[in-house]
Design goal:
single chain, alpha+beta, 35% helix, 19% strand, elongated, HicB-like antitoxin of toxin-antitoxin system domain-containing protein, DUF7387, TTHA1013/TTHA0281-like
């Protein structure tokens, strides 16, 4: 099932009038896709999918999130996420830097 919709978000900072496609996947989850940016997200309900899409589009556009500028800041974030900073450093050395999606 595909539903075409215009923006229904309650977020005041989101551009109005953009086109969003809602699709219900075979497993029952909903997929929301912003046609302008090509960004998609999913959720167990239509509203969850739309809420997740709002956040994904904001991240895509750089409207939210913080820059990590120093190695110390990076190590702190990695540790908070339960990732060993030494493993990340080793992977960078073995693969010539950051993967494309992290640049």
């Amino acid at each position: 099932m595909v539903i075409m919709s215009t923006e229904t978000s309650t977020n005041d900072d989101v551009q109005s009038g953009r086109t969003i496609t809602l699709t219900q996947a075979d497993g029952g989850w909903w997929v929301a896709r912003d046609e302008e940016t090509g960004v998609a997200s999913q959720g167990e309900t239509r509203q969850d999918a739309l809420d997740n899409l709002d956040e994904a589009v904001a991240l895509h556009k750089g409207d939210i999130g913080e820059s990590i500028d120093t190695r110390e800041e990076e190590e702190k974030v990695l540790e908070e996420l339960g990732i060993d900073p030494d493993e990340v450093a080793q992977a960078r050395d073995e693969h010539d830097g950051l993967p494309d999606f992290m640049q």
